[in-house]
Design brief:
Layout lengths: L2 H29 L9 H40 L2 H23 L6 H25 L5 H20 L3 H25 L9 H9 L1
Helix pairs in contact: 1-2, 1-6, 2-5, 2-6, 2-7, 3-4, 3-5, 4-5, 4-6, 5-6
Amino acid sequence: MNLKKWFFLFWTTLCVGGAVMLLTGLGMQLFQQELSNFKGPVDIIVNILQLGLSGFMISVYAQMGFFAYLTLNYIALGLFKKSWQYIQVVLTVFVLLDLMFLRMLMGQERDVTGDIMLGVTLLIIGITVAWLKVRGTNVSAFIPTLFFMIAVTTIETLSALNVSQIATWFVFIPLVACNAYQILLLHRLLSNSSSSVVQPTQAAIAKS
């Protein structure tokens, strides 16, 4: 991957995060009837800027998690070989169960319905993105993509999980959008790349 392709991935993911956060924030404010609290155009502009900047920061956070996973996936393939596929399946199931049930079973006060909805939503999105990734690459990319979309997105959302359901969805929606965008775009960016550093990492997702 050359600098031009990396920059394209960076700024387009930045735009995805900002746009999705803006839509998410305005939608939540409209649903909670908070828009009536704005006293003029200045308040509206400040609100839009705050939402956009929040989306930019979340997109950068998502990109950090994405490249961290690429590195992890590449190293794990060298260490565990074919068993890495099965490890990812087990970890994905565990993370999904933890997201929906385990914290409640450990006695923590949780909104069980909200946690289950979040988990089911993430599972549906993860399967959809993995299916699209398979269509663009090959069937062996299904498990790594599903693991990334479920496990990594959940880890990235941890900071908001213990705050409130609103905060969780506020962070989760732009995060999952950025992650889906990155994983679906990467093989297209690297299809003609001659880089010897990042190319094996992409192959680890597409062919593992």
